[in-house]
Amino acid sequence: MGYTRKLAIRNFIVEGFLILASLVVLLPLVILILGSFKTSAEVLSFSLSLPDTWQFSNYVRVFQEGGLSRAFLNSILITGVSSIINIVASSAAAFILARRETKLSGTIYMYFFMGLIAPMSIITTIRVVQGLGFYGSITSVILIYAALNTAFSVFLYSGFIKTIPRALDEVAFLEGASVFGVFFRIVTPLILPVNATVAIMVFMSVWNDITIPVYFLTDSSTWTMPLSIYNFYGKYSRDWNLIFANLVLTSLPVFILYLFGQKYIVSGLTAGAVKG
Fold it and tell me: In angstroms, what CA-CA distances link 50 with 53, 82, 141?
């Protein structure tokens, strides 16, 4: 009885802590959403009260004056292409590294693994991009994002591919399949859960980032959504209702993606962690 009571008390404390942590996260989000429908005077209270009059015109004004249509297309292009490049390159690299158990492949795998903790050198990257002639273009940002997320993706793919029996590869080779055939016809259909996980994680990482666009996108016509928010804040720093509306519009695609793709994130991370 004593143990049961202690367990109940512990569960009560844990649940209370989780509820408190959830409120800490949710309350600012609720204030953000409600504030986006208020007037510039009402929003300054930063309260949970409902607007006196729901100002849907805030979103229309933000979309028209904030240049969100162009920024939205740029963000979709950058996140989409960088995700595809990352998935194809990382899964192919992980397949080779997982199947060839040599010292060289082990060294290369550790090189990728170090990328999880090694910081990016902005100055060096700028010099390289300038030397390639891509500086200021969307292409440079796409390639940088695809490379930045490679380490994490290879780590996930390698763990999952190692669980796939080698017998499948051997049977395919006996039937005359090439390495590319084995990868695209045998391995690729089996790693779809990890593909979904990598796509969602890379999408959210790229969509929310502002550091790379600030340094590498010099023309306003190439700006992404986070960078457009930064510029919008400089113009309307006193109109928090418009800033809140801008933030809601920018966060909406990521929220929808995570809402429908969270099960794939969990399944993909679990599958990739079976072996490492």
Answer: 9, 40, 41
Architecture of domain 65-272: Orthogonal Bundle (1.10)
Which pTM was predicted? 0.81
Contact status, residue 155 vs residue 117, Cβ threshold 8 Å: no
Is the distance from CB of 245 to CB of 59 less than 8 angstroms? yes
Q: How many CB atoms lie within 10 A of CB 247?
A: 21
What are the structure tokens assigned to 182, written together?
Answer: 């084995």
**DSSP string covering 53-66:** S--THHHHHHHHHT
Considering just the CA atoms, what is the radius of gyration of the chain in Å?
23
The SS3 call for residue 147 is helix
pLDDT, tens digit (0-9, with 9 covering 90-100), for 86-128: 999 999 998 888 888 788 888 888 888 787 787 788 888 899 9
> Per this entry, what is the length of the chain?
276
